[in-house]
Each structure stands twice: as C-alpha cells, then as structure tokens.
Amino acid sequence: MRFEDHCGWIVAQTELLVDGLHGASLTAPVPSCPDWTLGALLRHIGGGHRWATEIVRTRATGFLPDGIVRDVAGDDTGPVPAAWLLDGARELAGALRQAGPDAPVWTPFDLGGMPFWARRFAHETLMHRADATLAAAVPFAVSADVATDALDEWMALDAHPIHFDLTPGKRAVLGPGRTLALSADDLPAAWFVDLTGDVNTWRRGGGPAAVTVRAPVQELLLLVYRRRDADGLAIDGDAGVLRHWLDHIAFG
Fold first, then answer.
1. Which Pfam family, any one, appears in the UniProt record (predicted)?
2. Residue 182, Cβ density class (10 Å: 0-12 exposed, 13-18 middle, ≥19 buried)
3. CATH no. for residue 116?
4. Least CB-packed of 20, 142, 184, 245 within 10 Å?
5. Is residue 86 in a domain?
6. What's residue 251's pLDDT?
7. pLDDT > 90 fraction of the chain, expressed in percent and rounded
8. Do both 19 and 131 map to the same domain?
9. Domain check: are 99 and 171 in the same one?
10. How far is CA 140 from the centre of its chain?
11. Contact 20, 129 (CB under 8 A)
C-alpha cells in the first residue's frame, strides 16, 4: 500500500481545495450534498480530519464519538476557513506518519489499521473537494494516479459483504447476467464488476460484460461516487444494468 503517498495526498487535496475556493460564499448550496451549504461541507471535512487524528494519536481500540464530523451547523457569514482546514489536514498526516503503517488502531470492520485511515481520508478529502467545486462553480480536476487509486479503494469498500447486513436492500443489486466493465480511455486501466453471485466482486481488468462504460478515469470516479450521471459517457451494452447498479451503490 502507498502509505506515504496517502498521507501526502491528504494535505495536497486540502491545499487544492482551499486554493480553488478563493472568494467563494459559504452560503452556497452543495448540489451533491443536499441540505448542506459550502460552509457545512467544509466543517465536515475539517471535523473529519480532526476526528481521525484523535483516533490515530490515541491508537484507539474502538469507535470514538464523531459529533465533530456529523454536526455541521455553524456560521456561514465569514470567509473560507483555509488555515483551519490546512491545519487539520497537516495534523492528520503528521499523526499518521508518526504512528507509521504498522501501528495497531481501530478501524471499521477491521479494514486494515493505519493504512486504512491514510487512504480513506486521502480520498474522502478528494471527493469532498469535488463537492466543493460544484458548490463554488469552479472546475474540478484530479491526477490520473490519484483517481485510479481512489477507484480501487471504492471498489474494495463497495465489495465488503458488511454492506448487505447494514443495508439488506442492497442485495437487489445482484442478479443473473449483471456484469459491468469500466474502462479508462486516457490510461491503460479497467475495472470489472460481477454482480451474478451471492456477493458482488470486482477485479482490475476488462472482459466481456453486459455493459461497458468508457471515459477518462476522472469521470469514471465521479460516476461511481455518483457525483455525475452517465450522460455523455460512451456506453456499450445494456444501459439498464448500469442504471440499476448506480441506483444501489451509495457510500462516501
């Protein structure tokens, strides 16, 4: 795993976030996060960094209260809190580096210790940066290596069987003939999703599928995170399989 990269990306994505929001109004609505203002979104991001920092620093052995993440109420009359956001990102990255990838720590569903927190918050920050750009009506761009790793992480998290226990209705995503291929047309990378068994599985690579989506890796990432729809993307095969899948994937 790219532990050091992920630590660095937490800070880098936060820097890109604040750099893109000069002059933005905290009262702007966030289209991809209904009922949130830009200010609420930024409080969620900064709160998340600080919550994760506490978990990492204390080598938590169980869940810590996350009110700082969920309570997004606040004053939206001021400027973007750039220094506060950057401080939180740097504190988290520093705590992770000080702990190192092998230090024991609690994670949801035993997902992999310190590397989980580094990777999760790298991409949590990335995707909320995408949300912020929608609110501020400014362009969003992500490098291919970051987008590729974010898609890999999303696939692994989405395939965790715990989702069927937490949301039994997600089993409706499974069914005969339901296979999907996502193919990046700007680099040699593809992802294959198989929904035909008792659980959903995925692998890197292409292959014959009921539906294939071809697009730049950034657009594929936004698609699976449901930050964009499939309009304008190259779709071959049964678009109904794609729509059904997109209707049953939601986290992050």
1. MDMPI_N
2. buried
3. 1.20.120
4. 20
5. yes
6. 57
7. 92
8. yes
9. no
10. 15
11. yes
